[in-house]
Write a structure and sequence with these properties.
The complex is a heterodimer of chains A (300) and B (374). Chain A is 74% helix and 4% strand. Chain A is mainly alpha-helical. The chains are: A mainly alpha (300), B alpha/beta (374). Chain A: It comes from Deferribacter desulfuricans (strain DSM 14783 / JCM 11476 / NBRC 101012 / SSM1).
Chain lengths: 300, 374
C-alpha cells in the first residue's frame, strides 16, 4: 500500500506539470483550432529564462521567499510577451490559410525557439541551483513527499481553479468560450476575437512558463530540447482529456502522470511509454473526442 | 660536384655522429593536430618531460634517450604512415596512439619490425591479434565491471544489489559486466531495470526498487541522469547507497544531486589530480611547472606509464633487445609502481591490474578515494 500511495504522489507531481502545459495546447486549439506545436519549446525557454532571472536575483542578496515568487511572475510576463509575438509572427498571417500551413508554421516556430536556446545557452544541460527551494521531505507512513512537490501540487491546483473560475464566471471568460464555439458569431456579437486570441496566448504561455519553472526547480537539469518531450506528453494529455476542453486538459494531465507512474511501478518501466500510447489509442477508439470532449452531432 | 660531395660528407657525418652518440630512440605516435590535438600534445609533452628527467640523470645504459614524434591526426591512414616512418628512423618502442583506430592501424607494422608499442586504446580487438609487441595500458568495460563487483562484495559487502542502466550500448554493456562479475563473486542482485535517458522523472522506477529493499542502487549511465536518480532516491527516503559508473564522474553530478550528492560512490579511472601515489604527485607537479597546465586527461598518464615500464625493463635487463623486453614485461613485471597505479600485463599484453578507484563524494562536493584502500 505504501508503494501505491508513493506512486500516486509521483504521478500527481509530474501530472500537474503535464496539466499546466496541456492547458496551453487546449486553449489555443479551442479558439483557433490550431495545434500550437511551439508550446513545448516555449516551456523549455521559460525554464532557461527563469534560471537567468533567478541567478540575477539571488546575486542581489534578496531572501528566497521573495526571489521565488518574483522569478515566477517575471518569467510568466516575459513568456507571455514571447507567446503573443509568436502568435503575431507565426500564426496571425496564416489565420485564413489552410490549417496545415499553420501547423507547419507552428513546428517551424518550435524549431526556431529550440535552436535559439541552443545557440544562446549551448547544448550542454544547465542546472538550477539546489538551495533555492530547501530539500525538505516529509515521511508519512513510509510515503515521502517533498516541499517542492507540495508547492507544485498546491500551486497547480490554485492556478487551475482560478483559470476555471475566470473562464466560467467572468465576462472575458464568456467571450473566450463564445469565440471557441463560433468565431464569426462572436464577432457579430461585438467580441474582438483578435484580443481574445492574444488573451489566450497570454494565459496559455504563462501557465506553460509555470510548468517550465517547476521542471527546472524540481528536476534541476534543463536541456535545450526538453520542450519536445514535455510538449508531446502534454499534447497527449490534452487529447486524452478532450482537446479544446479546459477541465479535460487538467484531467488528462493528471491521468497521464498517474498512468505512467503506475505502469512503471507495477508493470514495467521499459514499457511505460508504450502503454501511454496504447491508452491514447483505446481512448480515441471509444471516445474520439477525449474523455471530457463534447460529442459533436453530425448533421446528415 | 663539390657541393654534392659536401652534402654527402655532412650526411655521413651526421649518421656517424648519431651512431657514435648511440641514443636510444623512442617514438611517440599521437594526434598532435586535429580533433584530439589536446590529448595528443599531452602525450607528447608528458613523454618528453619524463625523458628529459631520465636524460638529466645520465640517461639509460650510458646512452641518452631521443624522442621522435609523429602526428597521426587520430586517423588510420596517417597512423600507418607514422608507423613506417618511426620504424625507418630506428625507434625501439612507440608510445601511442590515443585512439584505438590509430593504434590498430599501426600495430602490424610495429609487430613485423619488432618494435614495442604501448597505447591507452580501449577497443577489445587491440589485444586479440596476438602481437607480442603490443601492450595495452588502460582498462576496458570488463575491467570496470570486475572492479565494481569487488567493491560491492569485498569492500562494502552488500547483501542486496539493484542495478539500473539506460538504453545506450555503453551503459548496457557496463551493467552486464557488473552483473556478471557480481554473480561470479556470489552477489545477490535483486533487481535489474532500465531508464530512458533524459526522462528526468525517475520516481516511479525508484519507488519500485524501494520495495525490493536493496542495500545499493548501481547506475551505469550518464551523470545527467545519475545526479537526478541520486536526488530522487533521497527524496523518496531510500536508504540504499548509490554507486555510479564512470560516466557519472562529472562535476555536474554534484550540482544535479544537490545536497543528496554527499555519500554517493562513483567508480572511474582516477582523474590525474586524485592519484594518490607519490610518483604521480611529483610528476603532475613537474608537468605543471614545465607546461603551466594540467595534463589533459588520465590517458596522458597511461601513456607515460607505458614508457616508464619499458625504460624500467631496459634498465633491469641492460639491453635494448625488444624481444627480451617484451618477455620481461609479459612474465616478470609484477605490480610495477605506475603513476596510474600498479602495472602488470598478461600474456596478451592486457593490463590486468586495475587502475580503477571508488570515490565517495564529500558534503563539500570533493572526492575522497575509499577503495582500493591504501
Amino acid at each position: 500500500m505504501e508503494i501505491f500511495f508513493q506512486q500516486l504522489i509521483n504521478g500527481l507531481t509530474i501530472g500537474s506539470i503535464y496539466a499546466l502545459v496541456a492547458l496551453g495546447y487546449t486553449m489555443v486549439y479551442g479558439v483557433m483550432k490550431l495545434i500550437n506545436f511551439a508550446h513545448g519549446d516555449l516551456v523549455a525557454l521559460s525554464a532557461y529564462i527563469g534560471l537567468v532571472i533567478m541567478m540575477q536575483l539571488t546575486g542581489a542578496s534578496i531572501p528566497n521567499y521573495i526571489v521565488i515568487p518574483a522569478v515566477f511572475i517575471i518569467t510568466a510576463i516575459v513568456i507571455a510577451i514571447i507567446g503573443v509575438i509568436l502568435e503575431r509572427i507565426a500564426y496571425r498571417p496564416l489565420r485564413h490559410a489552410p490549417r496545415l500551413s499553420a501547423v507547419v508554421s507552428a513546428l517551424g516556430a518550435g524549431m526556431v525557439i529550440q535552436n535559439g536556446i541552443m545557440l544562446i545557452w549551448g547544448p550542454r544541460p544547465k542546472i538550477y541551483p539546489s538551495d533555492v527551494v530547501p530539500a525538505v521531505y516529509w515521511n508519512i507512513g513510509g510515503v515521502s513527499i517533498g516541499l517542492m512537490q507540495l508547492i507544485i501540487l498546491v500551486l497547480s491546483l490554485i492556478l487551475m481553479v482560478v483559470l476555471y473560475i475566470f473562464v466560467n464566471k467572468t465576462k472575458i471568460g464568456t467571450a473566450i468560450r463564445a469565440s471557441a464555439i463560433d468565431q464569426l458569431a462572436a464577432k457579430l456579437m461585438g467580441i474582438d476575437v483578435n484580443k481574445i486570441i492574444v488573451m489566450i496566448f497570454v494565459i496559455g504561455s504563462s501557465l506553460g512558463s509555470v510548468g517550465g519553472l517547476f521542471i527546472g526547480m524540481y528536476y534541476k537539469g534543463i536541456y535545450f530540447n526538453m520542450g519536445w518531450i514535455y510538449g508531446l506528453n502534454a499534447f497527449v494529455a490534452a487529447i486524452i482529456g478532450g482537446i479544446g476542453n479546459i477541465p479535460g486538459a487538467m484531467l488528462g494531465g493528471m491521468l497521464l502522470g498517474l498512468f505512467n507512474a503506475f505502469i512503471a511501478g507495477y508493470v514495467s518501466t521499459t514499457w511505460a511509454d508504450a502503454f501511454t500510447y496504447i491508452l491514447l489509442i483505446i481512448i480515441l477508439i471509444f471516445r474520439p473526442t477525449g474523455i471530457l470532449g463534447e460529442r459533436v452531432a453530425e448533421k446528415v | 660536384m663539390k657541393r654534392l660531395l659536401l652534402a654527402l660528407f655532412v650526411v655521413l657525418a651526421m649518421v656517424s655522429f648519431s651512431f657514435a652518440a648511440g641514443t636510444i630512440k623512442i617514438g611517440v605516435q599521437a594526434p598532435i593536430t586535429g580533433k584530439f590535438a589536446s590529448e595528443g600534445q599531452g602525450i607528447d609533452n608528458a613523454v618528453r618531460l619524463w625523458v628529459e628527467q631520465v636524460n638529466a640523470k645520465g640517461g639509460l645504459l650510458g646512452k641518452k634517450i631521443e624522442v621522435i614524434t609523429c602526428d597521426d591526426e587520430g586517423t588510420a591512414v596517417k597512423a600507418a604512415i607514422c608507423a613506417r616512418e618511426l620504424v625507418n628512423k630506428g625507434v625501439i618502442a612507440v608510445i601511442g596512439s590515443y585512439t584505438s583506430t590509430a593504434t590498430e592501424a599501426a600495430q602490424a607494422t610495429y609487430f613485423r619490425a619488432g618494435v614495442l608499442q604501448t597505447s591507452d586504446g580501449t577497443s577489445d580487438t587491440l589485444v586479440k591479434h596476438g602481437y607480442w609487441t603490443f601492450f595495452r595500458n588502460s582498462s576496458p568495460n570488463s575491467a570496470e565491471g570486475k572492479f565494481t563487483a569487488e567493491f560491492f562484495m569485498k569492500f562494502k559487502k552488500y547483501k542486496r544489489i539493484a542495478t539500473i542502466s539506460d538504453y545506450s550500448t555503453f551503459s548496457v554493456d557496463l551493467e552486464k559486466a557488473v552483473y556478471e562479475n557480481t554473480k561470479k563473486l556470489g552477489g545477490n542482485i535483486v533487481y535489474r531495470g532500465k531508464i530512458k535517458s533524459g526522462d528526468q522523472n525517475f520516481t516511479p522506477i525508484l519507488t519500485k526498487i524501494k520495495s525490493y529493499n536493496p542495500d545499493v542502487i548501481y547506475f551505469s549511465g550518464y551523470y545527467t541522469d545519475g545526479g537526478l536518480i541520486r536526488a530522487q532516491m533521497k527524496q523518496l527516503g531510500i536508504k540504499a547507497d548509490f554507486v555510479g559508473g564512470d560516466s557519472n564522474d562529472n562535476r555536474e553530478f554534484v550540482k544535479l544531486a544537490g545536497s543528496a550528492a554527499a555519500g554517493a560512490y562513483i567508480i572511474n579511472v582516477p582523474l590525474p589530480e586524485y592519484l594518490p601515489y607519490d610518483i604521480a604527485k611529483k610528476f603532475l607537479a613537474d608537468y605543471r611547472a614545465k607546461y603551466h597546465e594540467d595534463p589533459p586527461s588520465i590517458w596522458t598518464l597511461f601513456n607515460v606509464d607505458g614508457l616508464r615500464a619499458i625504460l624500467h625493463a631496459i634498465e633491469v635487463l641492460k639491453t635494448t633487445d625488444t624481444k627480451k623486453i617484451a618477455d620481461y614485461l609479459h612474465n616478470e613485471l609484477k605490480d610495477f609502481p605506475g603513476i596510474t597505479g600498479p602495472i602488470t600485463w598478461d600474456k596478451n599484453g592486457e593490463r590486468i591490474t586495475s587502475a580503477y578507484m571508488a570515490y565517495e563524494i564529500q558534503p563539500n562536493g570533493d572526492y575522497k578515494i575509499v577503495y582500493p584502500t591504501k
